[in-house]
């Protein structure tokens, strides 16, 4: 019935089939009988796409005609996941497509499996951006996502002898049927050069930036269909291309190789996504990427979206630029440059307008994750922007000194420029000073931003700070990924939940209904079967379907504490080896890990090797057969998440309190009926409050307790010496039991744990093992467990990204829906 809203073409099986065959023959140029699976996928995607285009173009014209305020989301990453299923859901064409293909003897799922997901993000931050643009479209908000069209996505992870090896991800090698290239709309972006003062015709002293070199930013548009609405928004990703002028000069001078080299340098800008997501390396190419997409996006919005001759001193009435972390923060001096240097607007007015136009979302608490750019590099690459930053800083520090006379220490602490260990620009400070609102991504995180990371700023400007708790799109992470549960929910309470997730509350009474619980268990069991089949095919890993699925999937980071999960597994094995635990008393469990490590993050890579080493032994230990198994499929990505999360019983959210800004995987698991074992960190706190203590396995130090332990001088060795079970697990690893007798194999990991343990793994070990013992007991009562699982689903509707977007609208953006009629 969803198809009715897409009136552009009658979506009958016949018309769909004829469009599909037309695409195959006249666009792909192949005969059905000879089509490869990629031919079929391309034709199918183009067929589905065709049903969205009219609505997309109507959305664009409606929005320009109305002149309403728009949201421009600036993000270096969008981790989109597979596009075809989402497009089928949004257009309501899934059944028509399935029947149409079946009539041709083809299988929709088989063709769909050909899609390579666009991995244009590292993890949580990029996936959040993808959820947000889905919600913005679904809620009819005029919005555009701006970002980078990386030619290579996040690396494909493989394991070689249990160690991570990275492979390139050439996701565009067969072309993308979802993109619309617009070389005609390319924008020039400059770098390097110098600045000079001059007097303009009116006799005014001005500054101009004489660019040293220049690249073209070519926009590629992607449709972002809303669910259950005609609105289709735009994601605009920029690709770098050398200008003609760029290489022609050199070419004409006869230096052909240099010309080609110059072209390569220019086009490298959008070549590959940086795989670090917590320790920025300060690399020149990364800063180029940031300025490249931001400069192109601002120029695009000002010159293409705003009406000709628009008075830019009113730009904040027509757009709000949301800064997704500090990666796009160079937009702040860029807008100042446009207003002051190019438009001749006076500095004070320009600064006032700029601050009204930007808002900043912070996604971290780790000091090492805060981006800084060396003054030397920034001044070389963007000399005018550095001058502007210095001037912003000068005026800002004058304000600080006025507010806190004599407090020179504070002024130095708050300066945008850090002096040690080198002079560098603190991007989070620039963002805070240049924005109207600053938000954290969960209640606890926002509180810690105010009280710790940005405390000086929250004292100066308390009302600038707010919270918007993250969310996830229920379209992709429930309706699409878990059709069994989605159908069960819809049978019980109707389909309104897909756009109004709080309606899941209506499921609460069904938790008391034994037949509903049994259907709920049947869905979970079927999801496990589906996952087991996939993992057998994908990774050649054999898993039992009738086990507890205990899942920890997220980037590999010490603060997330994959080591704690591993120590629990080693503890169980050690207890069995010592005869303290009968294997037959263990509830059959599959412990599943999924995690990529940043290629340069040594400790993370060693932990991956250790997990794989333990898996190899535990999975073959005769004592543990059918009882305890580790599955570590390589290359965890959105495609895998969509199959794995619906199969999970237990969600591992075990970061050290005060370190995980929010987490969003935690929300996806709860929404799909997994129970959480977790600390009071990030959004876990809000999940715990909503689902209730009886339905959540809480453990571990709280954030203030962590601060006390650290202040008192944390000694991990004391925990090791004082805890036989912990000592047993660590000694077992150190004995070479998982490394063919090599006692030094995991020295790097163990010596750090025993000597430093920055993230208090050992301090939380016993509490975690105790909580796992409670899991074991609770799981034995399947009726009570499924009751809890259903209540997790019923009580986590709050975590829809639609609610997050509503909060952004109410607290920060103040833009209104513009539905297409
Ligand atoms: C920065 C500079 C150079 C190269 C890469 C980066 C970079 C890229 C991604 C830094 C951080 C990146 O992502 C951080 C991230 O994913 N943070 C997570 O954001 C989620 C959404 O708000 C939160 O739920 C997670 O708690 C938080 O860790």
What's the overall geometry?
globular
Radius of gyration computed on alpha carbons: 27 Å
Report helical residue fraction.
40-55%
Largest sheet: 10 strands, mixed
What structural class do helix, strand and pairing data support?
alpha/beta
Looking at the overall shape, the CATH architecture of the domain at 536-780 is 3-Layer(aba) Sandwich
Unreliable residue runs: 1-9
Superfamily (CATH H level) name of the domain at 536-780? Glycogen Phosphorylase B
The number of helices is: 33
Count of distinct strands? 25
CATH topology name of the domain at 536-780: Rossmann fold
Average pLDDT score: 96
**CATH class value of the domain at 536-780:** Alpha Beta
Q: How far is the first residue's CA from the last residue's CA?
A: 17 Å
Portion of residues in beta strands equals 5-15%
Structure ligands: N-[(biphenyl-4-yloxy)acetyl]-beta-D-glucopyranosylamine
Pfam family, one: Phosphorylase
Family: Belongs to the glycogen phosphorylase family.
Protein name: Alpha-1,4 glucan phosphorylase
GO molecular function: glycogen phosphorylase activity; pyridoxal phosphate binding
């Amino acid at each position: 019935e969803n198809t009715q809203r897409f009136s552009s073409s009658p979506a009958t099986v016949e018309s769909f089939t004829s469009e599909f065959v037309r695409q195959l023959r006249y666009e792909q140029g192949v005969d059905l009988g000879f089509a490869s699976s990629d031919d079929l996928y391309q034709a199918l995607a183009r067929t589905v796409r065709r049903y969205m285009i009219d609505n997309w173009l109507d959305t664009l014209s409606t929005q320009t005609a109305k002149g309403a305020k728009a949201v421009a989301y600036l993000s270096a990453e969008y981790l989109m996941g597979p596009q075809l299923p989402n497009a089928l859901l949004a257009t309501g064409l899934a059944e028509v497509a399935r029947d149409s293909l079946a009539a041709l003897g083809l299988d929709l799922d088989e063709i769909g499996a050909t899609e390579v997901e666009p991995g244009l993000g590292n993890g949580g931050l990029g996936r959040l951006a993808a959820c947000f643009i889905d919600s913005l479209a679904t809620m009819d908000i005029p919005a555009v996502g701006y970002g980078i069209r990386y030619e290579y996505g996040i690396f494909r992870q493989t394991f070689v002898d249990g160690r991570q090896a990275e492979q390139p991800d050439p996701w565009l090698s067969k072309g993308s049927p979802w993109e619309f290239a617009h070389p005609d709309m390319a924008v020039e972006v400059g770098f390097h050069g110098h600045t000079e003062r001059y007097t303009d015709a009116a006799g005014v002293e001005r500054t101009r930036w004489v660019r040293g070199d220049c690249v073209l930013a070519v926009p590629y548009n992607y449709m972002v269909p809303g669910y259950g609405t005609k609105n289709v928004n735009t994601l605009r990703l920029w690709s770098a291309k050398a200008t003609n002028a760029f290489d022609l000069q050199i070419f004409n001078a006869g230096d052909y190789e240099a010309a080609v080299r110059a072209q390569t340098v220019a086009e490298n800008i959008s070549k590959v996504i940086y795989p670090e997501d917590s320790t920025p390396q300060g690399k020149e190419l990364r800063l180029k990427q940031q300025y490249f997409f931001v400069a192109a996006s601002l120029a695009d919005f000002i010159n293409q979206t705003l009406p000709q001759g628009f008075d830019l001193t009113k730009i904040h009435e027509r757009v709000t630029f949301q800064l997704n972390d500090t990666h796009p923060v160079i937009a702040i001096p860029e807008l100042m440059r446009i207003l002051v240097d190019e438009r001749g607007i006076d500095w004070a007015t320009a600064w006032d307008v700029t601050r009204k136009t930007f808002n900043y979302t912070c996604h971290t608490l780790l000091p090492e994750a805060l981006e800084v750019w060396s003054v030397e590099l920034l001044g070389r690459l963007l000399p005018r922007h550095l001058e502007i930053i210095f001037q912003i800083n000068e005026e800002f520090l004058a304000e600080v000194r006025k507010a806190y006379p004599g407090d020179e220490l504070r002024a130095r602490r708050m300066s945008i420029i850090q002096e040690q260990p080198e002079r560098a620009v603190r991007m989070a400070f620039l963002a805070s000073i240049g924005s109207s609102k600053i938000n954290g991504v969960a209640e606890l995180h926002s509180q810690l931003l105010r009280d710790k990371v940005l405390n000086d700023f929250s004292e100066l400007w308390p009302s600038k700070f707010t919270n918007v708790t993250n969310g996830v799109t229920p379209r992709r992470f429930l309706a699409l990924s878990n059709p069994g549960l989605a159908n069960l929910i819809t049978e019980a309470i109707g389909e309104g939940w897909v756009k109004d997730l709080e309606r899941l509350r209506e499921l609460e009474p069904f938790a008391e209904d034994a037949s509903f619980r049994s259907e709920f268990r049947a869905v979970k069991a079927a999801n496990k079967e589906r996952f087991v089949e996939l993992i057998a095919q994908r990774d050649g890993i054999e898993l039992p379907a009738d086990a507890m699925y205990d899942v920890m999937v997220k980037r590999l980071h010490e603060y997330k504490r994959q080591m704690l999960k591993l120590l629990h597994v080693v503890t169980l094995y050690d207890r069995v080896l010592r005869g303290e635990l009968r294997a037959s008393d263990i509830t059959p469990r599959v412990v599943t890990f999924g995690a990529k490590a940043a290629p340069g993050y040594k400790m993370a890579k060693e932990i991956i090797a250790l997990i794989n080493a333990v898996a190899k032994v535990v999975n073959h230990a005769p004592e543990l057969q059918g009882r305890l198994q580790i599955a570590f499929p390589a290359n965890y990505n959105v495609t895998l998440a969509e199959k794995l999360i619906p199969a999970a019983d237990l969600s591992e959210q075990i970061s050290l309190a005060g370190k995980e800004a929010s987490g969003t995987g935690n929300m996806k698991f709860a929404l799909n009926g997994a129970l959480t074992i977790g600390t009071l960190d990030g959004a876990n706190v809000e999940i715990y409050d909503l689902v209730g203590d009886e339905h959540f396995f809480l453990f571990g130090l709280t954030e203030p307790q962590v601060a006390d332990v650290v202040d008192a001088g944390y000694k991990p060795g004391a925990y090791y010496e004082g805890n036989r079970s912990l000592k047993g697990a660590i000694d077992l690893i150190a004995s070479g039991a998982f490394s063919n007798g090599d006692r030094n194999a995991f020295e790097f990991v163990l010596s750090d744990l025993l000597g430093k343990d920055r993230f208090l793994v050992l301090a939380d070990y016993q509490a975690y093992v105790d909580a796992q013992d409670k899991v074991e007991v609770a799981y034995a009562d399947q009726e009570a467990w499924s009751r809890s699982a259903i209540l997790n689903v019923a009580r986590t509707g709050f975590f829809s990204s639609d609610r997050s977007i509503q909060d952004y609208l109410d607290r920060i953006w103040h833009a209104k829906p513009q539905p297409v009629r």
